[in-house]
Amino acid sequence: MTTLVSADSIRDELRTHLAAILYCEIEEIDDDATFAELGLDSVLGVELVSLLNTKYGLEEMLDTVYAHPTVNQLSAYVSSQVAALEATAK
């Protein structure tokens, strides 16, 4: 069974989680702003990574947020990781 999670759906999830973590409205999240510009610190970054790991079955570390520092970049990366997981599960 293939679930294929799109980068768009991951981006929506990221925006929702970020808004909750940062106590702001989803509309305030700029997909191309860095997480630092949005106010995400390392503690909140760990929370975000934990949510992604739980939601998508990943084992990412905080460094992932720094290596992919915008919603658009991180959603594309997570999408590729989920696709790789699904490919190996076949």
Continuous helix count = 5
Question: Distance N terminus to C terminus?
Answer: 8 Å
The amount of helix comes to 55-70%
Q: Work out the oligomeric state of the chains in this entry.
A: single chain
* Order of secondary-structure elements: HHHHH
Q: Report Rg.
A: 13 Å
Q: How many β strands by DSSP?
A: 0
Keywords: Phosphopantetheine, Phosphoprotein
Organism: Streptomyces kurssanovii
Protein name: Acyl carrier protein
InterPro entries: ACP-like_sf, PKS_PP-bd, PP-bd_ACP, Ppantetheine_attach_site
Key terms:
90 residues, mainly alpha, 5 helices, 0% strand
Structure, explained:
The chain is mainly alpha-helical. The chain is built from five helices and no strands. It has helices spanning 7-22, 35-38, 42-56, 63-67, 71-89. Helix 1 (7-22) crosses helix 3 and helix 1 crosses helix 5 (71-89). The longest helix is centred in the C-terminal third of the chain and has 19 residues, at 71-89. The protein is globular and about 40 Å long. The model has no long low-confidence stretch (mean pLDDT 92).
What is this structure's SSE topology?
Blueprint: H1 7-22, H2 35-38, H3 42-56, H4 63-67, H5 71-89
Helix pairs in contact: 1-3, 1-5
Brief sketch in words of this structure:
The chain is mainly alpha-helical and 90 residues long.
